[in-house]
């Protein structure tokens, strides 16, 4: 059976979850990159190797857990971010699927994203219960539906 094409909302949630993985891997560098008031970039290749890069450094991490939940064949993801004032981050993303290319854009509050559920207790609860629909709903809200 052919994987379904993800919705724009699912793709926005994917961006949020990738940023959360980067933040959980290295909070300090991720926060500096995102709050630098300059452009930064998130890329993911076909093998799930992800990279967040900006003025203050580079973080390499695995995006595979997030990509597996999309259920689509991803060739690459490229997200360009820019400063939008206060903690607002604007983004333009390109998802290269094996069957189509999808572009999305939006903005979000970085502080709200990180505070939405990045603690160890919340992570453990999600692992125990599987995909948390309330959490995904909150991410949809933060990322601009």
How much β-strand is present in the residues?
25-35%
Oligomer designation: single chain
Report the mean per-residue pLDDT as an integer: 83
The run of helices and strands is: HHEEEHEEEHHH
- Cross-sheet strand order for the largest sheet: 3-2-1-4-5-6
The global form is: globular
Cα distance, first to last residue? 28 Å
Largest sheet, strands/sense/barrel:
6 strands, antiparallel
Rg on CA atoms, Å: 14 Å
Question: How many discrete structural domains?
Answer: 1
- With helices defined by DSSP (H or I, 4 residues minimum), what is the helix count? 6
Structural class: alpha+beta
Concise synopsis of the structure shown:
The chain is 41% helix and 32% strand.
Describe this structure in words.
The protein is an alpha+beta fold. The chain has one domain (8-142). It has helices at residues 8-25, 27-34, 64-70, 110-116, 120-129, 133-142, and strands at 40-44, 49-54, 57-62, 74-83, 88-97, 101-109. A six-stranded antiparallel sheet has the order 3-2-1-4-5-6. It is globular.
């Amino acid at each position: 059976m052919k994987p379904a094409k993800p919705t724009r909302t699912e793709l926005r949630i994917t961006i949020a979850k990738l940023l959360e993985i980067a933040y959980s891997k290295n909070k300090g560098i991720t926060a500096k990159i995102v709050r630098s008031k300059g452009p930064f970039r998130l890329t993911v290749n076909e093998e799930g190797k992800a990279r967040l890069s900006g003025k203050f450094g580079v973080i390499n991490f695995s995006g595979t857990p997030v990509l597996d939940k999309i259920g689509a064949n991803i060739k690459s993801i490229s997200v360009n971010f820019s400063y939008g004032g206060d903690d607002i981050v604007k983004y333009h993303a390109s998802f290269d699927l094996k069957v189509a290319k999808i572009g999305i854009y939006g903005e979000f509050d970085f502080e709200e994203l990180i505070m939405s559920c990045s603690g160890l207790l919340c992570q453990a609860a999600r692992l125990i219960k599987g995909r948390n629909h309330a959490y995904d709903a909150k991410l949809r809200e933060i990322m601009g539906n």
